[in-house]
């Protein structure tokens, strides 16, 4: 009898789940077996949870990973670019794929904001993932979730940690160029500046230092660190926290005039490997951006201790990076009936 009741309950649940999915493609409440972390059935009717596409698009992550595998093999820097794309999405009206929208009659694209213009990249890879997902599961997997999956996949393929990724974000119907300019921290930020801008997103100092560890991969343009080489404090002197030989090397990449688009690795020791060398370099005065080096020298809170701890213990860094990525990925998502699942990540439906 008990068995029959359980079996009947299961059938009804499966039926409801299928009905809702059909009525609202892409809504995928994930009702059914193991629908929510902790096993609390129905605990996340409008929240994010890892099994969101379990029934509506079980192959989603495999599709993401197969495109990433090829793209990153062809161009290792792509991993870094995709990780950054998720960050720049989440800091502007939440993780809603607003960064992917192109200019249109109603959209002032975030791609033209100061932190993104001539800098943010990876859109073609997201397009390719989206096209494959639309073929396999039409209008089901949001662009915002694709960004989150691509960021995790890129971290893993670069040798970094993995994490169980909450899913179910929906896509915005608008963008905010002005919030991109005000919410994304500039590279010449003071430590207090960085802490304030992260706090605005409910991220604390631990998140700030761990997530800055994303700079273990990728590159930066000369324009973003030139000030440190030639005029750090408006007195025509360099940033004295720069280690001498590193400083000389950077000057050869980045002359006083011109060369603004020349690039230098954020972690010159292992620029395509996700490891904790980034933190060791900071200890040695070889952080590239002002925002990297001030985590050690800024003298606010306990970021210095955190840099030292992550430099000493890569497992500790990996664990915290994963935790903080989940936290960042949870910034104000659109869920339930809010937003939409775009068919093409560059335009609203
Ligand atoms: C703490 C505040 C941060 C500042 C001020 C900052 C600033 C920058 C700047 C200026 C660049 C180079 C852009 C260019 O040259 O055009 C960059 C690159 C990068 N950032 Fe950040 N960033 C911060 C936090 C983060 C976070 C939280 C992540 C990810 C978790 C991240 C991931 C990356 C990656 C991977 C690159 C290299 C991208 C590529 O090679 O295409 N950054 N960042």
Overall description:
By secondary structure, the chain is mostly helical. The chain folds into 2 domains: 60-182, Peroxidase, domain 1 (Orthogonal Bundle); 185-327, Peroxidase, domain 2 (Orthogonal Bundle), CATH 1.10.420.10. It is built from 14 helices and 2 strands. The chain has a two-stranded antiparallel ribbon. The longest helix is centred in the N-terminal third of the chain and has 22 residues, at 2-23. The protein starts with a helix and ends in a 20-residue tail after the last helix. 43% of the residues are buried. The model is unreliable at 1-43 (pLDDT under 50). The site of protoporphyrin IX containing FE has 25 residues, from helix 3, helix 8 and strand 1. This is Peroxidase.
Using the 3D structure, state the CATH architecture of the largest domain. Orthogonal Bundle
As a whole number of angstroms, the C-alpha radius of gyration is 22 Å
Distance between the termini: 49 Å
| Alpha-beta content class | mainly alpha
CATH superfamily of the largest domain: Peroxidase, domain 2
Strand proportion: under 5%
Q: What is the H/E order?
A: HHHHHHHHEHHEHHHH
CATH class of the largest domain: Mainly Alpha
Number of domains: 2
Please give the largest β-sheet: 2 strands, antiparallel
- The coarse overall form would be globular
- The average pLDDT is 90
Spatial sequence of strands, sheet with the most strands: 1-2
Helix amount: 40-55%
User: How many strand elements?
Assistant: 2
Low-confidence stretches: 1-43
List bound small molecules: protoporphyrin IX containing FE
What would the CATH topology of the largest domain be?
Peroxidase, domain 2
InterPro entries: Haem_peroxidase (IPR002016), Haem_peroxidase_sf (IPR010255), Peroxidase_pln (IPR000823), Peroxidases_AS (IPR019794), Peroxidases_heam-ligand_BS (IPR019793), Secretory_peroxidase (IPR033905)
Keywords: Calcium, Disulfide bond, Glycoprotein, Heme, Hydrogen peroxide, Iron, Metal-binding, Oxidoreductase, Peroxidase, Secreted, Signal
EC number: 1.11.1.7
Catalytic activity: 2 a phenolic donor + H2O2 = 2 a phenolic radical donor + 2 H2O
């Amino acid at each position: 009898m008990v068995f029959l009741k359980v079996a009947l309950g299961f059938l009804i649940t499966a039926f409801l789940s299928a009905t809702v999915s059909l009525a609202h493609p892409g809504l995928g409440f994930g009702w059914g077996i193991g629908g929510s972390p902790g096993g609390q059935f129905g605990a996340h009717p409008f929240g994010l949870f890892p099994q969101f596409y379990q029934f509506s698009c079980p192959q989603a992550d495999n599709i993401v990973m197969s495109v990433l595998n090829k793209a990153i093999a062809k161009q290792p820097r792509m991993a870094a670019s995709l990780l950054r794309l998720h960050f720049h999405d989440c800091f502007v009206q939440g993780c809603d794929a607003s960064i992917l929208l192109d200019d249109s009659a109603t959209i002032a694209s975030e791609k033209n904001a100061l932190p993104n213009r001539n800098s943010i990249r990876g859109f073609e890879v997201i397009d390719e993932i989206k096209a494959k997902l639309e073929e396999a599961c039409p209008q089901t997997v949001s662009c915002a979730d694709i960004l989150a999956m691509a960021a995790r996949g890129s971290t893993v393929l670069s040798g970094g940690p993995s994490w169980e990724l909450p899913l179910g974000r929906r896509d915005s119907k608008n963008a905010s160029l002005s919030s991109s300019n005000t919410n994304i921290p500039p590279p010449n930020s003071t430590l207090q500046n960085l802490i304030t801008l992260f706090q605005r997103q409910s991220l604390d100092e631990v998140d700030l230092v761990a997530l800055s560890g994303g700079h273990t991969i990728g590159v930066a343009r000369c324009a973003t660190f030139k000030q440190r080489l030639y005029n750090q404090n408006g007195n025509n002197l360099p940033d004295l926290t720069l280690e001498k030989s590193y400083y000389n090397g950077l000057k050869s990449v980045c002359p006083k005039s011109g060369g603004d688009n020349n690039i230098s690795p954020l972690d010159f020791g292992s620029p395509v490997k996700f490891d904790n060398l980034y933190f060791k370099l900071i200890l040695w005065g070889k952080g590239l951006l002002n925002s990297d080096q001030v985590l050690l020298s800024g003298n606010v809170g306990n970021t210095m201790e955190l840099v030292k701890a992550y430099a000493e213990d890569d497992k500790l860094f990996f664990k915290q990076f994963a935790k903080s990525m989940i936290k960042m990925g949870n910034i104000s998502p659109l869920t339930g009936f809010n937003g939409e699942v775009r068919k093409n990540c560059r335009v609203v439906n």
